[in-house]
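>> received
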Amino acid sequence: MNPSSYSLALALALCLAPTVAAAQAPAPPGPMARARYSLPWNLRPAIAPNILRLDVAVAFNAAGTNTATIFTGGGKPIASLPDLGFYGRVGAVTFGPDASSGHATFVNPILFALWTPQIAAGVRLPVFLGVTVPVGTGSDASPLQRSTFASGIYTRQAMDNAMFAANYLTVTAGAGVSWMSHGLTLQAEATVLQLTRVWGASLDADSSRTNFTTGFHAGYQVVPWLTVSVEGHYQHWLSTPASVTANALTRSQFTVGGGVRGNIPAGSVLLRPGVAVFFPTGGQMRAADATILQFDLAAPF
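>> returned
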């Protein structure tokens, strides 16, 4: 190689070195590092966050329009256990059986812990344990109040049933797996819910119920400020409650959909506003011709 060739090769190497180094270096710490993970819509986070989150679902169906608003807050209080978080959720629902009437009520809060250890590069195994506080109006409520309370089940795509079972204390446990690399997130989870009636025997015939939910999520960070995703949810009653005996279509529900989420840094906080739409493919939700529009503002910090 002649001297001019050596000079050209050296110059090219010097130009490419910063680019190669940047590609191989990990993303800098800060709020945008959290944007590489595609936050699910109705599944649990696979990375235990410090987070405040407001999530509003609107269900349009043949019987009217319902809403379910859920607020989630919590974080990781133990510095030596950065993958362990403790959280609480509270919520309210509105029920509109027709255009001229409507009703609103608060639902059962839920307290839960989330442990999300990384078991391999890019792979996490989130484990979940929670319990509801059965303080929602139920046993002494009017039929409209009880219908309002229960309307949140399908408004939330049957994935948060524990919060909408008025007379039941519910223990929930589940696990999942997620893989994240180069802006792509793949995640799945499964949960068992054991409901035990604590009052209202004259209104709820079942002393206990056992429910199962599962779901998948796939999301991709198209550009640093925008993530797109698809998600599916499946719910199935493992026991046979009175509602299933009365209507077999309430045994299982399956919904699919997707949405977009922004990634907006604000100091040390990452604002992640999003909107998604979901459609049922079977069960009572399909029979009711339901469409779910979901608005979400998450702020991990």
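>> The chain has one domain: 41-300.
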